[in-house]
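name: query_chain
kind: protein
chains: 1
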Amino acid sequence: MLGEAAAIAILGVFLPSGLPVFPAVLLVPIASALLIIPFLFVVLHIRMRRLAEAMDRVSQGFFDTRLGGRQSKDELGRMHSAFNESLSHIEETFHSMTSRVQELKNAEHEMWNMNSELERRVRERTGQFEAANRELEAFIYSVSHDLRAPLRSIDGFSSALEEEYADVMDVVGRDYLRRVRAACSRMSVLIDDLLKLSRLTQGDLVLGEVNLSKMVGKICQQLRQSDLSRNAEFEIESDVIAVADSRLIQVVLENLLGNAWKYTKHKVQAHIGFGVIRKGEEDCFFVRDNGAGFDMKEADRLFQKFQRLHLESDFEGSGIGLTTVRRIVFRHGGRVWAEGKENEGATFYFTLGPPGSGKA
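structure:
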């Protein structure tokens, strides 16, 4: 402990002159406090500086930073302990996030590789499909062209035989020749339809707004002119607009309306309608008739090549028309289907890709 004389000397340094003299019993504690306070200030300054340096390192991303040394039990010591504990949690969270980020990067890289491989395969398959399609079109064209010559010969000789030797043939022979010529004519129609079907895959779509109502009106007028004896009523919804290739969509409507005209020929009063309805998010165009109809069990066969649900003796046709319709609709990104009932008519629906077309 400081002596009384030493305490007076210390106080003489810190206290200005002229102040009253403290009692001797207070001199020693006051002098001790004056000596300890600067030391405590230095210690506090050092510890705060270490804390500031540690926080600066943390801000730079060094989450493994810790305040070392023995931690006191005062407020500053508890703050240092809390700081170290927080850094431990932060470091653990950082490592967990880093690991998760790496996993996501690995997954992204794997996904990128898979997408690249998928795109490569798609390009490869697309190239193969296009090559096969070109070969098929060339084959169909070649076969169709090569078939025409023998068909012309068969039809020509049959015609000559019928004209020049009709008097030496009986009724059965002349009927056989008539059947041969009819078969040649039907074969020629099939060849033409096959060529038309193959050409539908060629060229790009030229899309634009098409007034289907006006197009249907012209087609119906042509159908009426083809047989003025028919008693037919056409119901056409006005201002039906679609975004389509006008050339191809006319083929669709000609086939559907032609079928409706054909399959209502035995009706005393034929009814043929055209319009558009909304189903969900799609505009569905339709052609409806009250003709022969069909059994819904056979609906899947309607759009297959050369498939017919009625006898040719009842209704003529090659079985290519609805296949053509389906291919054109698919090229537009749409779909086509039919509903019907035997002897009560049929309705054919089709869409043309994304919604947005319909009534103007």
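note: Residues 207-359 form a domain with the Heat Shock Protein 90 fold (CATH 3.30.565.10).
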